[in-house]
Amino acid sequence: MLSLSSGVSVVIKIGIIGYGYWGPNLVRNFSEIQESRVIAVSDLDPKRLNLVKTRHPDIQTEADYRALLANPGIDAIAIATPVSSHYRLALEALEAGKHVFVEKPLTETAKEAEALVAAAEMRNLVLHVDHTFIYTGAVRKIRQLVDNGDLGDLYYYDSVRINLGLFQHDINVIWDLAVHDLAIMDYVFPLTPVAVSATGISHVPDKPANIAFLTLFFDNNVIAHIHVNWLAPVKLRRTLIGGSRKMVLYDDLEPSEKIKVYDKGITLNGSKENLYNTLIGYRTGDMWAPQLEITEALRVEAQHFSRCITHGEASLSDGRAGLRIVRILEAANRSLREGGRPVKFDWLFGNATHSDRLPVEEAA
User: Of 52, 226, 235, 238, which residue is most buried, by most CB within 10 angstroms?
Assistant: First the structure.
């Protein structure tokens, strides 16, 4: 692993595989920060490579990605290709001694993700997953509110993430959109889900599900619900997080006040032994919108990835975080195929098993 000697600045040299939808954003951000420099870009489409030459004439272009892996002047590989190719490309990069930055989700299966984690750890290389939203000022502020106990006991996570398109041919809407909320919860919540239930449907013949509803069950009566949809007339990115003390409204499309913290909730008066005498009181206080860091999330993430290599920082979205998300996605797919039947997680062994009863019933 690269390291800094006293007073010496190390610039990470990046090779990027894929210049489609997300690749240009990676090139721009890794090129504009002081911590890294983009050396080469690979893509199978000559038109995309011509775009690279036009926009960044100092960056090498290669049709064959293996030229990047063989280049001794490249320290790290960023992968922005379809998820079906993530495992093969990331494994080859790790075997070539390169640090790896992978677009979400990490892999198609938990077994593949486990193999990548093992390969990176064996070689002491950084394996980083592009869970972009956890690097936004808004999500980092929510994490701070949770860590400080400002929200009190967590009750729920309720999210709507919908828009018209972009229909994918290789993954369903859960793997495309819900992965963002799963990554946010993995970063923000100090809890691990115990089961997931998923329902959905495809309105396009022979295509993956374009609308889905996920429910995740946690211990301590915490629940999460995620609604994702490629076939909506409007674009919404709105999340509610409820706690015993305060509640948060997070709207990623809001230009100025992405987070609003509400001092609202309920109070219970009465004995646990006699529920009929329990009185529910409603508390209504102030709303405030905290000031947020406005630096582009991908730029923050690119700087973080570079420091993980040069300074040995622990990645906030490392291979193990990517593996946790893939396990949930894999279980959600299983539930989706079986009409929403809850799938219970066995995190100790890294497998998911079917639950005959809802986990909330088991905990009762």
Answer: 226
The tokens describing 21, both together, are 């939808």
Q: What is the 3-state secondary structure (H, E, C) of 88-145?
A: HHHHHHHHCCCEEEEECCCCCCHHHHHHHHHHHHHHCCCEEEECHHHHCHHHHHHHHH
Contacts 24+ apart (CB under 8 A), 273-282: none
Name 159's bridge partners.
Answer: 226, 239
Residue 322's contacts (CB-CB under 8 Å, 6 or more residues apart) are 102, 104, 105, 106, 107, 113, 117, 127, 129, 131
Q: What is the pLDDT of residues 122-154, one digit of tens each?
A: 999 999 999 999 999 999 999 999 999 999 999
Whether 260 and 146 have beta carbons less than 8 Å apart is answered as no
- C-alpha pair distances (Å), 102 with each of 3, 23, 135, 345: 22, 11, 15, 25
Tell me the C-alpha distance between 130 and 127, whole Å: 10
Tokens for 207?
Answer: 């295509």
What single-letter amino acid sits at 26? Answer: L
Under 8 Å between Cβ of 164 and 324: no
Dig out the tokens for 352 from the structure. 């998911």
DSSP of 315-355: PTTBHHHHHHHHHHHHHHHHHHHTTT--EEEETTTTEEEE-
What is the pLDDT, as a whole number, of residue 332?
A: 97
- Token output for 237: 């990115």
The type of residue at 105 is: P
Note the pLDDT tens digit of each residue in 88-108.
999 999 999 999 999 999 999
pLDDT higher than 60, residue 9? yes
State residue 227's pLDDT score: 98
The dihedral formed by the CA atoms of 62, 64, 68 and 71, expressed in degrees to the nearest 10: -90
Residue 361 has pLDDT above 70, yes or no: no
Which residues have C-beta within 8 Å of that of residue 22, sequence separation ≥ 6? 80, 103, 130
Name the amino acid, one letter, at 176. D
Q: CA geometry: angle at 24 spanning 14 and 56, to 5°? A: 70
pTM more than 0.85 = yes
